Structures are given as C-alpha cells and as structure tokens.
Amino acid sequence: xxxxxxxxxxxxxxxxxxxxxxxxxxxxxxxxxxxxxxxxxxxxxxxxxxxxxxxxxxxxxxxxxxxxxxxxxxxxxxxxxxxxxxxxxxxxxxxxxxxxxxxxxxxxxxxxxxxxxxxxxxxxxxxxxxxxxxxxxxxxxxxxxxxxxxxxxxxxxxxxxxxxxxxxx
Length: 169
Hints:
Blueprint: H1 2-29, H2 45-56, H3 63-77, H4 83-97, H5 107-133, H6 140-168
Helix pairs in contact: 1-2, 1-3, 2-4, 2-6, 3-4, 4-5, 5-6
C-alpha cells in the first residue's frame, strides 16, 4: 500500500511540474533587479511556458492553471488586474483550438507561429491596459518586451523539452 501512495504522489508531482515550473518562471520574471529599464524588456516567461505546454502537453496545462498563473502574474507585476489573466487565457484558448496544426510541425514553424501569437498577446495587453487607463499608453516597453520574449523562446523551449523528456514523461 505504501508503494501505491508513493506512486500516486510521484504521478501527481510529475503532472503538476509544468504548472509549477511556469509559476516559478512568472515569479522569477518579477524579481526586482537593480538595473534601470530592465523591467521594460523582461520577457513574458509565462506566455512562453503556456504556449509550449498547451501545444505539447495540454492535459498538464488546463485553463484553471492558466487562470491562476495569470492572476498571480497580475498581482506581482502591479499591472491592471485581469489584463494578463485575460491575455493568457485567450492565448491558451487560441492555441488549444488550433493544436492539430502543431501535430507534426517543425520547431521553426512552431516558433514562427509563436512570433504571431506573442505579437497578438502584447497588442491585446496594450489595448486592454489603455482602455482601463482611459488613455493611450506608451507601446515601446511592450514592443521591447515582445522582442525579448520572441528571442528567448528557443532557449526556454529547449529547457521545456528536456523537462518533458526527463521528468514529466
């Protein structure tokens, strides 16, 4: 019986690892480093992780997990509450709906689609934030964040693949 309990705990921990790793990345992105202007270019690590896991293991990144990650990201970032959550849920919905496109897609195609998805996510975040603020916000910080997000995607995708091979199975 003890072995059965430990086996269940092992399976549960492996199943929660994409969520926990994504949450860790969101918190890591919010760590305040003493570098002027760094917050404007910190990549959207949660967006990358959610995009990857919804394509490769959607069973391990359900909508409730994306919602929780988005709320925590909004609370930690000090952004308008709900904007990041809504954007992440819309990305989750769009990618999950088109998951069959990614079936046998090459990495380059998946990355190219991510470039488009990330642009849409940043645009939506900017639009929602501007509507809530009541005036048009400066888009340059989001543009630079977009560029760093797209640039770091291959590194994090490689890390997620290694995690999937070694831990999630």
